[in-house]
Amino acid sequence: MAALVLARSRRGEWPLLLGVVFLAEIAVDSYAGLPLWTGAMLGAINAFEAWVMAALTRRLIPHQRLGAVSLHSLWRFVGVCALAAALSACFGAAALMNTGMAQDYLTAWRIWWIGDAIGLLLFAPAFWVVAELRVRDL
């Protein structure tokens, strides 16, 4: 997701980055022994989540530099993370129910949402820090 936000000036990178998310999910799921179509479905859901998160972040938080983020923007970022994870969890839990990998929709939704929200809150800012350091060093 952070890569999609940082790639905003070069829109040609979006399809490539979404494709990488999609293919990575297929690779991980096939390694875990899941059918290819299940990996493709989960990959599409995760790519959709990354796209929603990046689009909302770009629209609601005007500065992507971490040094320029206000407290208000930080709370917006937390809200965007929660919303993107919730949308992804709706589709993800339904997909897990459809494939028989989950028995209870609400439990699957809650687990998916917590995992994605924590991942977005932890890894997106870390990725931004590394990207900012690399840009400053150039």
Structure, explained:
The chain is built from five helices and no strands. It has 138 residues and is mostly helical. The longest helix is centred in the C-terminal third of the chain and has 33 residues. The relative contact order is 0.13. The model has no long low-confidence stretch (mean pLDDT 80).
Number of helices: 5
Q: What is the H-and-E element order?
A: HHHHH
- Overall number of strands: 0
Helix content: over 70%
The secondary structure category is mainly alpha
**Major sheet size, sense and barrel closure:** none
User: In terms of quaternary structure, what is this?
Assistant: single chain
Shape: globular
| Uncertain stretches | none
Rg measurement, Å: 16 Å
Tell me, rounded to a whole number, the average pLDDT.
80
- Please report the distance between the alpha carbons of the first and last residues: 23 Å
**% residues in beta strands:** under 5%
